[in-house]
């Protein structure tokens, strides 16, 4: 059985975006500071909690580093409903052939922009 909080299991950390991970990291570091302070003053009741918080911090750092290296995928942002409705309205009057052509053109535009930014 792994030591740590259930909310910060590796499976759960995969669903968090980087901003949420940094927030969790900040909270865990604050908790670790408070636990160390309690330990130094003799007020700490659960010494195992120190170990659990340290492991949570290590897990968060690991996920962030793996995302930086491209080992672990960053969660994909869900498209807002307003944007989806706007795209549907835009393509509502088009036939399937025109929709396919528009999709190819938008992909080509995206690839061209990527090449331009890469060259610059």
What does this structure look like?
With 120 residues, the chain is mostly helical. The chain has two domains: 64 residues, Helix Hairpins, CATH 1.10.287.310; 39 residues. The protein contains five helices and no strands. Helix 2 runs antiparallel to helix 3. The radius of gyration is 23 Å and the shape is elongated. It starts with 9 loop residues before the first helix and ends with a helix.
Write the layout of secondary structure elements.
Layout: H1 10-15, H2 18-41, H3 47-69, H4 81-91, H5 96-119
Helix pairs in contact: 2-3
Based on the model shown, name its key terms.
about 120 residues; mainly alpha; Helix Hairpins; 5 helices; elongated
Query: How many individual β-strands?
Result: 0
**CATH second-level architecture of the largest domain:** Orthogonal Bundle
Radius of gyration: 23 Å
| Count of separate DSSP helical elements | 5
Mean pLDDT: 76
CATH topology of the largest domain: Helix Hairpins
Distance between the termini: 50 Å
What structural class do the secondary elements suggest? mainly alpha
Determine the strand fraction and express it as a percent band: under 5%
The CATH class of the largest domain: Mainly Alpha
Shape: elongated
- Summarize the biggest pleated sheet: none
Please outline what is shown here.
This protein is mostly helical and 120 residues long.
């Amino acid at each position: 059985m792994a030591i740590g909080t259930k909310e910060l299991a590796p499976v759960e950390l995969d669903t968090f975006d980087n901003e949420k991970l940094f927030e969790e990291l900040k909270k865990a570091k604050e908790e670790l500071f408070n636990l160390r302070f309690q330990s130094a003053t003799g007020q700490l009741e659960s010494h195992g909690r120190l170990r659990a918080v340290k492991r949570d911090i290590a897990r968060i750092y690991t996920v962030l580093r793996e995302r930086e290296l491209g080992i672990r995928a960053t969660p994909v942002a869900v498209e807002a409903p307003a944007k989806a409705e706007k795209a549907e309205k835009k393509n509502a009057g088009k036939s399937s052939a025109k929709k396919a052509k528009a999709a190819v053109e938008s992909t080509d535009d995206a690839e061209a922009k990527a090449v331009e930014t890469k060259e610059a």
